[in-house]
Design brief:
The chain contains five helices and seven strands; from the N terminus they run H-E-H-H-E-E-E-E-E-H-E-H. By secondary structure, the protein is an alpha+beta fold. It has a seven-stranded antiparallel beta sheet with strand order 1-7-6-5-4-3-2.
């Protein structure tokens, strides 16, 4: 997905943005993304979210690296059709990893039914150095920021999964996530 002759910095800089058209109604796309449990289905590595004692804060595992907890809060606005996943490894107080998702009615921008999804990650300074090394289960563990150069490729796979799932459900009439 990336060419070795260009550095990640040259191509993406501080931002990793993906976009795609999804042949499914915007309300269905929004409802699916607003449910944190659906991350199990379409993401590459986030699994098993359970709500913590703090309202709206969830903890799960990130299977990219052994023994890695990921904390997440979904800030969703149904009128604006925005979904922001605020998350962090190892702790749930400083949710500095923010995944910004914007849904756009394809009728407005492409003159066809469906949804345009725009997803951006910003290169927060904490990607460069773990701000909470004392909370890491291992001092030698890979840090999420070490993978910044793979974000576009990894998120492209996840967006393709999301698109396929939503288009299949819309086309087949299957609207519920299998439990």
């Amino acid at each position: 997905m990336t060419r070795a002759v260009y550095s990640h910095e040259q191509i993406y800089g501080q931002f990793c943005t993906l976009q795609d058209y999804i042949d499914a109604p915007i309300d269905e796309v929004y409802d699916y993304l607003a449910d944190i449990q659906n991350l199990n289905e379409w993401t590459y590595s986030t699994r098993g979210f359970d709500e913590t004692d703090e309202d709206g804060l969830f903890v799960g595992v990130d299977t990219l690296v052994d023994d890695t907890k990921i904390y997440m809060r979904v800030q969703a606005d149904p009128q604006a059709r925005t979904l922001d996943y605020h998350c962090a490894w190892d702790q749930g107080k400083d949710l500095w990893m923010v995944y910004l998702i914007r849904l756009i009615d394809a009728n407005v921008v492409l003159n066809r039914p469906g949804t345009v999804l725009v997803w951006t990650n910003c290169h927060h300074p904490n990607y460069d150095k773990n701000p909470y090394p004392e909370l890491s289960p291992s001092p030698n563990r890979t840090w999420v920021g070490d993978m910044w150069g793979l974000f576009y490729a990894g998120h492209a796979v996840e967006l393709a999964n999301l698109k396929a799932i939503l288009e299949r459900r819309h086309g087949s009439g299957a609207r519920q996530v299998a439990q």
